[in-house]
Design goal:
396 residues; alpha/beta; Rossmann fold; eight-stranded mixed beta sheet
Amino acid sequence: MVGLSQLTAAFQAPQDNKSTVLLALAGGASAIAALGYLANRSSSGYKRKPSSFEISGGAVDAKKVKDTVKEYYGEYNTLERGKGAVMKESQKVADLVDKFYSLVTDLYEWGWGQSFHFARKLPNRDWSASEVAHEAWAAATIRLGPGRTALDVGCGVGGPMRTVAAVSGGNVVGITINEYQVQRATYHNEKQGLAEQCKAVRGNFLDMPFEAQTFDAAYAMEATCHAPKLEQVYGEVFRVLKPGAIFMTYEWVTTPQFDPANTAHVACVDEIIIGNGLPDMRTWKQAEEAGKAVGFKLLESRDVAQASRKAVQPWYMRLGGNVPLFRWIGAVNGAIVNVMEFLHIAPRGMGDVHKMLFDTGVSIMEGGIEGIFTPMHMLVFQKPEEPAAPAAAPAQ
């Protein structure tokens, strides 16, 4: 989702839950807003994320945020969890995802960061460093280097794009459906000195504005889950890649432990679908087959969440790993957002957006704890090399 697809949490749910509780208790709305505003400023004037006073609905007019939230929910066949939520009209996916990211981008940056994806927490590393490692792995996997250009499929505000470009020395072009995210990515690229290597463009990754065989490599960070059918986006990636190029994607999928006959499992996945603007949820096997169906050769398929489980913290610990505590933090943060909404600091309706994100955060955490959902099933595909031209017939 584009991206990475992630939860906002004004207090990052850390390993030290006691510290989180004390922070939440100590912070009033005005104090948090003021501290966030000051911490967000650097001597260069670079604002790494929106301050609490600047949370908006992105490209959605402030007066229309409330109505847009209502329209968003109306796109699903049911809002009753456990019934099997899917989008009613798949042709409306692009518009729905555009609305979704207009509503949540500021909250994502405010509470999560510039990389809208999950990662496992590595030993002796904080979450930010672990996210960078997760992104750098993509750069190495797709074999990006100086003089080569990769496509970021669903780039969000460009957090992964900047890591991939910086560690590899290559260039990255990102595509996102949302114009507000293009603006934010361009701003960050310039402020971080990567404008010459990184570029974000607006477009639908189901119909990309690029010529065939343009890119040397491609990757997607939890973004293609927004496609109505994976074959559609995979087919477009296949088209714009040069022969022999590598495409790596981290997919949001159900795991082999998911039981479609288990109502609790279905309800959990329904919440993830609705709260993240997804058309539905695929299995890992369906994702594999989609890539092969459009012509890719499957090089590797595995759930990265299962690697080195004794040494790393699971990805869902980014949310704290404690559902009751997470609900309590959500209530505190929700009260703060509602106060900002009441004071006309945040647009009317942002409280509803915040609640949606925290509700889905609970389900994402539960899905991870139960082992029925993963946001990082890694698929590595390769576009086949073009067959060599037949040798010329020898002269008679």
